[in-house]
Amino acid sequence: MDCRYLENNPQHWHPNHNVVVKEIENVNKIKMALFFNHTMNFQNYGEKSKRKSELVIEIKKFFEELGIKYDLLPQEVRLVESSITTETAR
Which family is annotated (predicted)? Predict the structure, then answer.
């Protein structure tokens, strides 16, 4: 896998990343794992989540360049109606 994003952002990622092929299913599905280390404190959850999201977007772009399409699984969405009543002054 192309690891340019990780290598071009050394301020965010340590250079010791690794890609592992976990399983091949039905000759047309590969399960892989990407192991990487942030250069920041693990307790900074907000920044860690932001970096991880950026990495996922870069991986998606890389696969699209290779002609590999990925569709997200359906996700549950909950909508809650909130009725706010306001009293008008007389």
Answer: Belongs to the MscS (TC 1.A.23) family.
Q: How far apart (Å, rounded) are the C-alpha atoms in residues 42 and 38? A: 8
**The token pair that represents 18 in the structure block:** 């690794």
- Total domains, the chain: 1
Full domain range(s) for residue 82: 1-90
Residue 63 parent element (H or E): helix 45-65
Chain center to CA of 74: 16
Please list the pLDDT of the chain residue by residue as tens digits (90 residues): 567 777 788 788 888 888 889 999 888 888 888 888 878 777 888 888 888 888 888 888 888 888 987 677 788 888 888 776 666 555
pTM, two decimal places: 0.58
